[in-house]
Specification:
GO terms for molecular function: membrane insertase activity. It is built from 4 helices and 2 strands; from the N terminus they run ββαααα.
Length: 113
């Protein structure tokens, strides 16, 4: 079932969003975020980052992914997402858990054993 969500912009015009399309776009971004968290966790573990530097590396990689998604969607990002802030903050903690899992595993495999 396709539902259409409507909102009113600052200029007063009504904008309609397809709920299934927005859900699909967010799902694609979540997949990218999970993959990015795993890959950057592997990189941080292999590089031997520890402590605060490792967490800063995660924040940097999340920010770079956010910029890449905005660049890919171009100036018409409103066609694909409701707002930009949700692109940055959705599934942030889930990605952090994935990052820490891969980070600690590869750090232990490369630098401890």
């Amino acid at each position: 079932m396709n539902r259409v969500k409507t909102t009113q912009s600052k200029t007063g015009e009504i904008i309609a969003y397809s709920e299934s399309a927005i859900r699909n776009n967010i799902s694609a971004v979540e997949y990218c975020r999970t993959s990015m968290a795993a890959i950057s966790g592997c990189a941080a573990g292999i590089l031997g980052l520890s402590g605060t530097l490792g967490f800063l590396f995660y924040f940097l990689s999340v920010f770079v992914l956010w910029i890449l998604v905005l660049v890919k969607s171009g100036t018409q990002w409103r066609k694909f997402f409701i707002n930009r802030r949700n692109l940055l903050t959705n599934q942030f903690m889930g990605g952090l858990c994935t990052y820490v899992l891969f980070w600690t595993f590869l750090y232990g495999m490369v630098h401890v054993y």
